[in-house]
Amino acid sequence: MLTVSCTCSGSSVHRFRTGLACTEQDPGRQRRDVSVMKDPFFIAPIPWLTHWAEPWCQRLGLPTLPLHIHEVLAAALLYSVIFWPLSPIISNILAPRHYGKLPRKRRLNWDAHVVSMFQSVLINGLAIWVMFADDERHSMNWEERVWGYTGAAGMIQALAAGYFVWDLFVTSLNLDVFGLGTLAHAIAALLVYSLGFRPFVNYYGCIFILWELSTPFLNVHWFMDKVDMTGTRAQLYNGFLLLFSFFSCRLIYGTYQSLLAFRDIWAAVNSHPFPGPRANSVMAFATDESTVPVWLAVVYLASNVTLNSLNFYWFIMMIRAVRKRFEPGKQPVTEVEVDLSSVASGVSAGATTQPQRRKA
């Protein structure tokens, strides 16, 4: 493996598209070789953009953001192109009878769900791949889980942040369609994702992204309502998959991982990383003065507790929504009562969301 240096000082951050390798000494652990997974994004950092972003990111205390600013912008651009013109073109081909008759507001809502569908499949697939491919994750101690950084984890953080840059832009331009609640959600989620570039609990970023494994099934459920498939056997089977994925990923796996994250953050409050050689390691951006401020711990823990509570509430509402479509003698509803199409609800910094109701 090629070895390169990764330094972060004041106004400069240097990283190459190769792996980082070094030897690190951790407290209570044997001396070991560290191989930090590189950023697998197909576009390398753009030098002039990275240089332009560095001073701003340093002032904001987000030293890893310049390494991924191009990914944030690329993701936002990709989702914008999917929203328009790809979604209208594809939707008119696949569902001309339904999409073609929709008024402006309902078309925008449809297109937003197309973006959500694409983004949830993409980000979940990448997160699972990183969790298996990034060997360094498996040997991280609590310090590395809190302050550590790898290029692949940073990429996941950037792609998720890019979604909310797009979400903020589209919502702001179509406030009459999506409402102030969705706008506030986009702002809050983008701010929360940005905290991950301190870096802060990047390890848990991929884990909490997996809360969204239920989102594709939810979007399928929503589209079935819109194409006159409400109450069909296909929607019933999809509903079972939706409930199973939501229950297992959010209520079981998500709650368990939240407790582990709470444990690591509690250990980090008023603590500092163990001093030692970090120049080329997963702790390259940590210093002896690094700590987790009380306000950051409180924001993270409070938002995560809120979100976990909402998950249980949403699960109950989803059961009711699925049942209504198959109870005899009742008019089937055509609006998913709980819209969890936003991937923000389970990111590393514990974004707080509200159950959204995008009007159809």
TrEMBL record:
Main location: membrane
InterPro entries: TLC-dom, TLCD
Keywords: Membrane, Transmembrane, Transmembrane helix
GO terms classed as biological process: lipid homeostasis
Protein's name in the database: Eukaryotic ribosome biogenesis protein 1
SMART domains associated with the record: TLC
Compartment(s) where it occurs, according to its Swiss-Prot or TrEMBL record: Membrane
GO CC terms of this entry: endoplasmic reticulum; membrane
Domain of life assignment: Eukaryota
Membrane-topology descriptor: Multi-pass membrane protein
Entry keyword annotation includes Transmembrane helix: yes
Record bears the keyword Transmembrane helix: yes
Transmembrane segments: 72-94, 114-134, 146-166, 173-195, 201-224, 236-256, 294-316
Chain ranges of the TLC domain: 105-327
